[in-house]
Amino acid sequence: MVKNKRLIALLVLVVFTFSLFFTFSTVNCEKVKAASNKVTLRFMWWGGEARHKATLAAIQAYMKKYPNVRINAEYGGIEGYMQKLITQLVGRTAPDIIQIDVTWIGELSAQGDFFADLKTFKEVNLKPFEEKFLKDWCYSNGKLIGLPTGVNASAIHYNKDFFKKFGIPENKTWTWEDILTTAEMVHKKDKNYYLLNFDATVCYYLLKTYVLQKKGGKWINDDYTMGFDRKTLIEAFTYIDKLFKVGAIQPFSESAPFQGKPEQNPKWLKGELGMLWNWTSTFAANKANIPSLSMTMIPIMKNAKSTAVTVRPSQLLAVNKLSKNPKEAAKFINWFLNDKQAALILKDVRGVPASSTAREALEKEKALDPVITQITSEALKRAAPPENALSQNQELEKIATDVIQQLAYKQLTPTQAADKLMALYKQKLAEIKRLQSR
Amino acid sequence: MTANLKRKDLVGLLYVLPWLVGFLVFKLYPFIMSFVYSFCDYSMLKPPKFVGLYNFIYMFTKDELFPKALLNTLKYVIITVPLKISFALFVAIILNMKLKGINLFRTVYYLPSIFGGSVAISILWRFLFMKEGIVNKFLGLFGIEGINWLGDPRIAMFSVSLLAVWQFGSSMVLFLARLKEIPSELYEAALVDGASRLKMFTKITLPMISPIMFFNLVMQTINAFQEFTGPYIITGGGPVNSTYLLSMLIYDNAFKYFRMGYAAALSWVQFVIILIFTAFIFRSSTYWTYYEYDEGRF
C-alpha cells in the first residue's frame, strides 16, 4: 500500500514536472515564435500638427491591435520632404511606408522602379476606392503606386466675418467678373482690406485656371508644346493686372515676406484679407487659425471648355519596393485607410477619406466638417481631367511666378508678360524634352 | 629604432584615421565627383550621362537666372563684407576700453554669433523687418515712416545683408584679441609726440591689426559668397528675384529640379569665382598688411 502510495506520488511528481516543463516550453515557444514574428516598419509622412497627432494615435492603436508590429514614425513638414525622399531612394534607405504626392509619380516612375505594386497584395482591399479615381491618379505604367489618403480639391477658403463686414453674400456662385467688382468695392470701402490673399504661386494657379477654362486641353501638351495661345494668355494676364489695379490683391511689396506661404500672412490671420485659393485638405489647419473660415467653389466661366477644377488624391501611401516586410506594410496601409477605427482616429487630417468605408464611418459619427464634404462633392461633380506631369513642372512654375511678380511690380505690361512667359517656356520646354528623352 | 618609428607612425596614423576617413569620404570624394558630374546630365536616380561642356554653355548662354544670381551674389558680398568687418572692428575697439562690467558686454555682443543664421533666427528676422514689423514700429516712435525692408526690390538685399552683419561676433573676437596685443608703448610714444586719436588709429592700430583684417576679409568673403540660409528663409530670393543668390540657384537645380550635373557645374563656377577673389585679396595683402615678425619666424 505504502509502495503504491509512493508510486502514485512519484507518478504525480513526474506528471507534474512534465506538465510544468511543457507549460513553460509552450510559453517559451510562443514567446520565441512571437519574437520571430516581430516586425518593425518605418512610416514617413509630412503634415501639420493636427495630422501628426492623429497619425501617431493611429499608429499606437495599430500596434496595440498587432503587438508583433512596431512602427517607427518619421514625420515633419513638406519643406525638404521630397529632397530627403529622393536621397533615401538613391541610398536605398527609404522607409517601408512612404507618403508621396501624386505630382511626383511621373518624374519618379520615369527615373526608376521604387514602389511595390499595391494591386498584387491580397492584404489590400481596393473595393472601397473608386476605380476611376485610382486609374486617373494612382497608376503608373500599369502599376498601382500608392493608395489615396483622401480626396483633395482646389477651392476658395473665405473668412465669414470679412464677408459680413462688407455685406458679401455667402451662398454666391462666384464669377471672374464678380471677384473683380466685389474686390474693388471692398478696397474702396477700407484701404486696409483686400478681398484676395494671393501670392505669386496662387496667381499662377489662377492664370492656369483662367486659360484652361477659355481654351480647354492641357497647360502643357505631352509633346512639350504649350497648350495655350498668346491671345488667351494676354487676356489672363490682363485680368490679373486688373486685380492688382483695383486693389483686389494686397500689393506684393507688402506681402513679399509671405510669398509661398500666404496662409501665414498676418493680415490674413487678422481677418483683413477675405479669400485664399487653397486645397480642401488644408481647411482644417487653416480653420484652426481662423475660426470663421468657410469654403466655396472657384469661379467657372460660362461655356468654359474645361472647369479646371482639380480633384486629386491628398497624398498617396506607397510601399517601398526594397521593404523587407512589404506584406506587413501593405496590411498597415489597408488598415490605415479602410478600417473604421483608423478612420475615427484620423478624421479629415488628410481631407475627406478616399475609402468609402472610412468615409461612411465618419459620416455616421458626424465626424466630418460638413463644409469639406459639401465642397468635395461639388468639386467631384465638376472635376476636370487630371493634369499631366509636365503641366506641374517646377521649373515652369518658377518662370511663371517670376513673370507674375514682374507684372505685379509694374516691370512688365500684360502683353510683355505673356510674350516673356512664352519665350522662356519655349526655351525651357526644349531643355526639359532633352533631359527627359535621354 | 626604425621599427620604433614605424610603430609611432602607425599610432599617429590611427589617431588621425577618423579625420582622414571623414576627409576622404565626405570632402575629397564629393569634390572630385562634383567635377565629374559637372560634365554630365545627372538626376541622381538614373546613372549620369556625359554631355561635355553643355552645362557650362547652357549656364552662360541660356539660363536667364544665372547672370541675375551672380550679380546679386556680388552685390551681397560687396554690401556684407565691408559692413560686417567695419562693425566688428568698431565694437572691438569699444570693448577694448577699460570699462566697468566689460566682460558682460563682450558676452552680450558675441551672442548673435552663437545664434547664427539659423532657420529660427531667419524667421524672426522676417517678422522684425516686414512692413508692419517691430523695426518699423520702433521707427514710427520717432516719427520715421516705415521702410519696406523686404518688399522693395531695391532695399531687400540690404535688409538680408543686415542679418549677416548682425553676426559679427567671431570677427570681433579676433580683432579684440589682436587689439589687446598691441604694445601700449606705441600709443604712449605717439601721445608724447602729440599725435591725434585719428592719427593713432590710422598709423598704429590699423597697421597692427592688418593681419587679422586680412584673415577676416578672406573668411568673410568666402562665407558671403556661400550664403544661403538667411536669404532663402527671409525672402526666398524675392521680391522679383532681387535676393536670389548663386547658392539658391544651385540648391533649386540640385534639389528642386534634380539637375545635379548642372548644379555641380554652377558650384564649380562659384568655386572659381571665390578662388579669384581670394587670390586677389592675397595678392593685394602684401601692400597693406604689416607683420612685426621677421620673415624667418613667420
Explain the layout of strands and helices.
The complex is a heterodimer of chains A (438) and B (298).
Chain A: H1 2-37, E1 39-46, H2 49-65, E2 69-76, H3 81-91, E3 97-100, H4 102-111, H5 131-137, E4 139-140, E5 143-144, E6 146-148, E7 150-159, H6 160-165, H7 176-189, E8 194-196, H8 200-215, H9 230-245, H10 252-255, H11 266-269, E9 273-279, H12 283-289, E10 293-296, E11 311-313, E12 316-319, H13 326-338, H14 340-346, E13 352-353, H15 356-364, H16 370-381, H17 394-408, H18 414-436
Parallel strand pairs in A: 1-2, 1-3, 8-9
Antiparallel strand pairs in A: 3-12, 4-5, 6-12, 7-9, 7-10, 7-11, 7-13
Helix pairs in contact in A: 2-14, 8-9, 8-17, 9-18, 14-15, 17-18
Chain B: H1 2-37, E1 40-41, E2 49-50, H2 54-61, H3 65-95, H4 102-115, H5 119-129, H6 134-141, H7 156-166, H8 169-181, H9 184-192, H10 197-225, H11 229-234, H12 246-256, H13 260-288
Antiparallel strand pairs in B: 1-2
Helix pairs in contact in B: 3-7, 3-8, 3-10, 3-12, 4-8, 8-10, 10-13, 12-13
InterPro entries (chain B): ABC_transporter_permease, MetI-like, MetI-like_sf
Pfam family, one (chain B): BPD_transp_1
Family (chain B): Belongs to the binding-protein-dependent transport system permease family.
Which regions of chain B contain 5 or more consecutive residues with pLDDT less than 50?
Answer: none
CATH class of chain B: Mainly Alpha
| Most strands sheet of chain B | 2 strands, antiparallel
Which outline of chain B best applies? globular
Q: Which CATH architecture of the largest domain in chain A?
A: 3-Layer(aba) Sandwich
Give helix % range of chain B.
over 70%
Q: Would you identify the CATH architecture of chain B?
A: Orthogonal Bundle
| Main structural class of chain A | alpha+beta
Helix and strand composition category of chain B? mainly alpha
- Approximate strand percentage of chain A: 5-15%
Q: Which percent band covers the strand fraction of chain B?
A: under 5%
Order the strands across the largest sheet of chain B as they lie in space: 1-2
| Succession of helices and strands of chain B | HEEHHHHHHHHHHHH
Alpha-carbon distance between the two ends of chain B: 33 Å
